[in-house]
Amino acid sequence: MEYIYLSYALEEDTPVHIGLKKPSTSQNNTIYNNGYNTYLICAENHSGTHVDAPAHFIEGGKNISEYGPEDLVFNNILILDILADSKKQIALDDLLWAADNLKKNLKELMEKTDFLILNTGFHTYRHNNIEKYLRENPGIKPDLIKYLRQYYPSIRAIGIDSISISTFNDSKNAILTHQMAFVTDDNYGEPLLLVEDMDLNKLSSSKIIKKLMVIPWQVKNVDSAPCTVIAYLD
Questions:
Q1: Looking at residues 97-105, what average pLDDT do you find?
Q2: pLDDT digit string, tens, across residues 124-136
Q3: Is 157 helix (H, G, I), strand (E, B) or coil?
Q4: How far apart are CA 213 and CA 179, in angstroms?
Q5: What are phi and psi of 69, to 5 degrees?
Q6: In which band, very low, low, confident or very high, does the pLDDT at 206 lie, cut at 50, 70 and 90?
Q7: Helical segments of 82-141, H only
Q8: Within a domain: residue 60?
Q9: How many domains does the chain have?
Q10: Residue 36: inside a domain, yes or no?
Q11: Cα separation of 226 and 51, whole Å?
């Protein structure tokens, strides 16, 4: 079994959503002066690979620290390769197309899925065209989130290889997409977790993930947090 990270290490050059401050680190103590090393790390909670919890957009929604370890382990992971370039709004047809490429029925693929990974290929711009990565990212249509929650309540999380699940400079859809993921409704499954800015460089739909763990920073009373994502490949 192979273990890989599906998350980026946080560093000072980490691209962050427009309007957020970049992470920074500074050395506080040194072995030379103090006999030991310590660092001050400053980062917004939506920096780098991070997991959004309902409190990000829903008043009274769960903070990320309210999730237990059992909520952050996934055993039925589906990877769908989606052709999504600049500013694309990912819709149901894109999922049907991806399933057809696998020569599978989408319903059969999704029935037991608890973590859906949308591999748009946009992660390739993270290192060679940061402005494009930050300002032209594909996103998910609110209607698709609604559909997934209505018909596939086993899904507990969605991950994507772009800076956000919503396209840049479309504030209305950004709010609707996140709210649709997080709202509590008797017609939907449980509110979703959203993992954004995933590192999918080593991944494709041909890979089989046996187990996936999302490990957020343990910080009380914040909506969301940077996270480490570990995948166990067959």
A1: 94
A2: 999 999 999 999 9
A3: strand
A4: 24
A5: -55, -35
A6: confident
A7: 92-101, 106-110, 125-128, 130-135
A8: yes
A9: 1
A10: no
A11: 6
CATH number of the domain that 99 lies in? 3.50.30.50
Confidence at 83, pLDDT banded by 50, 70, 90: confident
Instruction: Tell me if 100 is assigned to some domain.
Output: yes
Q: Is the pLDDT of residue 216 over 80?
A: yes
24, HSE (Cβ side, Cα atoms, 13 Å): 7
User: Which tens digits make up the pLDDT trace of 30-75?
Assistant: 999 999 999 999 999 999 999 999 999 999 999 999 999 999 999 9
Q: How far is 158 from 127, CA to CA, in rounded Å?
A: 23
- Pairing relation of β-strands 193-196 and 157-160? parallel
AA identity, residue 224: S
Residue 18 sits at the vertex; the CA angle it makes with 12 and 20, to the nearest 5 degrees, is: 55
Question: Which is nearest to 178 in space by CA: 170, 126, 45?
Answer: 170
E strand segments, the chain = 2-5, 24-29, 38-42, 50-52, 73-74, 77-81, 89-90, 115-119, 139-140, 157-160, 193-196, 209-216, 225-233
Is 30 among the domain residues?
Answer: no
Tokens standing for 166? 């919503």
Q: How far apart are CA 86 and CA 74, in angstroms?
A: 30
Q: Which domain holds residue 114?
A: 2-7+45-233
